[in-house]
Design brief:
- The structure is a single chain.
- This protein is mainly α.
- It folds into 2 domains: 99 residues, Rna Polymerase Sigma Factor, Chain: A (Orthogonal Bundle); 77 residues, Arc Repressor Mutant, subunit A.
- It has 8 helices and no strands.
- The protein is globular.
Length: 186
């Protein structure tokens, strides 16, 4: 990245990183935060680009690591809040207020909302393939795993999505992603 400075990187890749963050989280504010954190890691020099991959695939790797960490922190916090709410609601016999914005609710009903329910490896592989249109080789580079593992994660992720839609009674044919199997060339 010798000839590409931080400002140029931001201009070139911010939209791609933000789109991936939005698909991963389903929340525009969370996506903004993750995008900013990704470029802060770059600016702080906490991560060094060594040139073993494309620069943008390296940025996706930073984004995925940040998102995974944030998801884990949120799960721990939500478990704690759930325990507190359960104790409080039992004492007061109240129910929580509906606070979710319409956009987030709609996203959760969408294909990407279903993808968000998958295990990390499958979820990340599907987002990089079908949202970001990365090749299998690029995905392997981002996830730092063998090409066969990427193919397996995508295949199993698509199969899991098909099963989720069948279990929910939803019609998976309304989405553009081929849920019957892999029709993409490597």
């Amino acid at each position: 990245m010798a000839s590409l400075d931080l400002q140029q990187a931001g201009e070139l890749y911010r939209a791609r990183i933000h789109r991936a963050a939005l698909v991963l989280t389903g929340d525009p504010w969370e996506a903004d935060d993750l995008t900013q954190e990704t470029f802060l890691v770059l600016a702080d020099g906490r991560a060094k680009f060594e040139g073993r991959s494309q620069f943008y695939t390296w940025l996706y790797g930073i984004l995925l690591n940040l998102e995974r960490s944030r998801r884990r922190r949120n799960e721990v916090r939500q478990r704690g809040l759930r325990v507190l709410w359960d104790q409080d609601s039992m004492a007061r016999h109240t129910s929580p207020a509906a606070e979710a914005p319409l956009e987030v609710a709609e996203w959760k009903k969408s294909l990407w909302g279903e993808v968000a329910r998958l295990p990390d490896g499958q979820r990340q592989a599907l987002v990089l393939r079908f949202s970001e249109h990365l090749s299998y080789t690029e995905i392997a580079s981002v996830l730092d795993c063998p090409l066969g593992t990427v193919k397996s994660r995508i295949f199993n992720g698509l199969a899991a999505l098909k099963n989720q839609f069948a279990a929910d009674g939803s019609d998976a044919t309304t989405f553009a992603v081929p849920l019957d199997g892999l029709s993409d060339a490597v």
